[in-house]
User: Which sequence fits this backbone?
């Protein structure tokens, strides 16, 4: 204990003590309790829990719906990382130029980020309604009936509709982070490159993109974790349906815990989700350390 | 900063943060304790069961607050019920928390898991209440003390049957029943030269006439699944009557060929566009009910007796009130000349938390439950036409039909229609949550082509086999 105090300094320890207490009570304890509960058969209500060892884990790995949810989360993650951050980067490049009204554009692009995901979800349910939604009616109106599809009720499309909505909502966040990163790139680098005859594309690839490495990885971690834990948008648009076609891990946990009262099993899935997020984050952080300039 | 001062600051910060999260709960606990300290002299000693309170004829001349949490009814009925209750019991304050059904389920679980549920909670029989009976007061002794030994004769039989799924102790007081059903826009059908469909051929005829005009035959919103289940139960009664209830008890199998036939018929309703495309991307409320009520879309919807109020008391389409809407029987699908029977839901009931510390408060809770079941509260509920009271004696006031204007007699006839056609195939709600979810899954899977009827039946049987009965 004395060595610990001497190493970090008593003042530093005191400063982080309030946060540490809160972290232990509201984050560490629930995680440990969840892990403990995952070895029990429990309905979340009765005082009795039945110890069943690893049976919840066996059940999870034999559960078709768990693998559908996991697959959907992975698709969600990959597409969100690529398109949300990709569009964010491109838009930031555009909005970094001195164009008329760029502050207004920045506000408009960021506006969806401040809306509650549930509200965004309900708006898109109305827009994408098969029978009388704005989108399908527009396609019908201009004679493009081939594009009139059931965006929400078609199993093969439902998860992609949700991902699209998510990207629509959060691209503004990526734009803001990239814009902030762009301000920190020294102008002299661009000037030197121009003198050397580098085109705009070459300057973007060889200077801008590498100089934003820390922003890339920050967004990579944030969008990955966001994709893994996404719930409200999925629930508002499809509730994980039809027939689990757009199920994700969080809606699977919700269904198992609150509808079916399989709390022991639900904690198993939530521990798995936590470990997945942890592994992805550790991997990305190591990757970041490897490529950092 | 000096070390000692730093320690003081950190200590204050830590304590205040923990206190901010913790003291909210202590406040609720303190409020619970207060009524016990002001216990009425006539109330029995703490810890005595509620039936002793009833026997002692508690007079409620000291203020007490009881809490109610439910998804049904909402304020349009609860407020007048509470107002009427307070005319008789001015000292009993009723505080209620209403949530829509989807939000209510997790809130209910969280409240009971935390040991802080409302005094009275709303339930449905079957899957919803089965895990909560351990926390609820058995009401059968109280009912007997109140209404005598044959008190069950005062309630409709099908309500008693459904409450007794979770035991003869009656862990909930049945308050309403609602049959499922189908509603037709008679005016829209007549304007298109059509009669109310009675069989599959009629349905196809309606579809062929209305589809070119952009109108739907059976207008459905299945995203939250309950309406799909109501519709599929009609189909099951056509192809495998009674099989679901036997399989529910483990006495029959879901991979029975008759159940597969029901799933094939279900699939056909979508393939033939009798149910409109995109049914699984919209919800009943408000994506189908509102356009149907406005007469703009859909010749028929599957909706139960709770649609009576919105059909006849809705001010938006006065021209449809007379001869506009009518409850009808679901068409015969298998050509045997018999139209399928509805299911009957015991719509909602109230359960009393058994661990209410103050017996005076518990007695007050029982008083409110009784009022809603058999007193003026039940008549007020009947006046809302969302459901029918479970006590046979409780009927709507004649003046409650006045809102229908010229359609008053038609409205009364439609209400009577439900009583005349109350021959049901069984209960609406599955007993087990896993079976209910399994049914939701296979209906959606077959409708959207993810599973064949055979695969769906096999899956349903696997789900059924894992249930601990």
Assistant:
């Amino acid at each position: 204990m004395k060595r610990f105090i001497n190493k970090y300094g008593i003042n530093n320890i005191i400063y982080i003590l309030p946060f540490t207490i809160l972290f232990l009570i509201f984050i560490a304890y629930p995680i440990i309790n969840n892990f403990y509960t995952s070895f029990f058969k429990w309905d979340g209500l009765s005082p009795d829990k039945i110890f069943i060892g690893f049976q919840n884990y066996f059940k999870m790995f034999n559960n078709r719906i768990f693998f559908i949810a996991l697959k959907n989360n992975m698709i969600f993650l990959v597409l969100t990382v690529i398109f949300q951050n990709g569009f964010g980067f491109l838009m930031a490049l555009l909005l970094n130029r001195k164009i008329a009204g760029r502050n207004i554009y920045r506000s408009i692009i960021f506006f969806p980020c401040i809306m509650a995901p549930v509200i965004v979800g309900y708006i898109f349910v109305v827009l994408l309604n098969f029978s009388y939604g704005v989108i399908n009616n527009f396609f019908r109106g201009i004679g493009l009936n081939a594009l009139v599809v059931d965006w929400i009720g078609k199993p093969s499309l439902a998860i992609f509709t949700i991902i699209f909505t998510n990207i629509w909502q959060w691209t503004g966040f990526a734009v803001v982070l990239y814009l902030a990163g762009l301000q920190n790139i020294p102008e002299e680098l661009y000037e030197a490159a121009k003198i050397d005859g580098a085109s705009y594309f070459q300057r973007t690839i060889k200077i801008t993109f590498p100089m934003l490495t820390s922003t890339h990885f920050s967004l990579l971690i944030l969008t990955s974790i966001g994709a893994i834990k996404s719930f409200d948008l999925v629930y508002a648009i499809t509730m994980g349906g039809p027939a689990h076609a757009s199920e994700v891990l969080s809606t699977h946990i919700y269904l198992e815990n609150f509808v079916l009262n399989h709390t022991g099993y639900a904690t198993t899935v939530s521990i798995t989700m936590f470990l997945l997020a942890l592994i992805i984050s550790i991997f990305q952080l190591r990757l970041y350390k490897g490529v950092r300039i | 900063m000096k070390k000692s001062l730093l320690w003081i600051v950190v200590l204050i910060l830590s304590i205040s943060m923990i206190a901010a999260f913790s003291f909210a709960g202590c406040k609720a606990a303190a409020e619970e304790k207060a009524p016990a300290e002001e216990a009425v002299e006539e109330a029995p000693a703490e810890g005595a069961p509620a039936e002793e309170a009833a026997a002692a004829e508690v007079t409620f001349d000291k203020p007490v607050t009881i809490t109610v949490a439910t998804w049904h009814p909402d304020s349009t009925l609860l407020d007048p019920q509470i107002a009427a209750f307070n005319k008789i019991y001015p000292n009993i304050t009723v505080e209620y928390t209403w949530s829509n059904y989807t939000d209510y389920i997790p809130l209910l679980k969280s409240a009971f898991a935390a040991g802080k549920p409302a005094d009275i909670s709303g339930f449905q029989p079957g899957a919803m209440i089965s895990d909560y009976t351990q926390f609820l007061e058995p009401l059968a002794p109280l009912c007997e003390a109140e209404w005598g030994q044959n008190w069950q004769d005062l309630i409709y039989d099908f309500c008693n049957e459904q409450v007794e799924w979770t035991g003869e102790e009656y862990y909930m007081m049945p308050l309403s029943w609602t049959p499922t059903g189908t509603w037709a826009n008679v005016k829209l059908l007549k304007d298109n030269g059509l009669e109310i469909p009675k069989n599959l051929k009629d349905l196809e005829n309606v579809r062929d006439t209305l589809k070119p005009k952009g109108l739907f035959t059976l207008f459905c919103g299945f995203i939250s699944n309950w309406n799909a289940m109501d519709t599929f139960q009609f189909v099951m009664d056509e192809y495998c009557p009674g099989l679901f209830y036997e399989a529910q008890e483990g006495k029959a199998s879901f991979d029975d060929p008759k159940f597969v036939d029901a799933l094939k018929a279900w699939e056909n309703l979508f393939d033939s566009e009798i149910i409109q495309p995109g049914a699984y991307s919209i919800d009943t409320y408000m994506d189908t009910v509102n356009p149907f009520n406005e007469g703009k879309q859909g010749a028929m919807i599957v909706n139960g007796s709770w649609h009576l109020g919105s059909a006849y008391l809705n001010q938006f389409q006065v021209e449809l009130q007379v001869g506009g809407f009518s409850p009808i029987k679901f068409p015969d699908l298998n050509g045997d000349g018999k139209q399928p029977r509805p299911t009957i839901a015991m719509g909602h009931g109230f359960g009393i938390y058994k661990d209410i510390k103050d017996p005076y408060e518990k007695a007050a809770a029982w008083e409110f439950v009784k009022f809603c079941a058999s007193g003026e509260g039940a008549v007020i509920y009947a006046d809302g036409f969302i459901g029918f009271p479970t006590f046979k004696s409780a009927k709507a006031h004649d003046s409650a039909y006045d809102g229908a204007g010229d359609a008053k007699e038609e409205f009364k006839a439609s209400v009577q229609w439900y009583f005349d056609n109350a021959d049901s195939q069984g209960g609406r709600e599955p007993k087990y949550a896993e079976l209910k979810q399994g049914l939701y899954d296979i209906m959606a899977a077959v409708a959207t082509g993810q599973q064949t009827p055979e695969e769906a039946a096999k899956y349903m049987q696997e789900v059924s086999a894992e249930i601990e009965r």
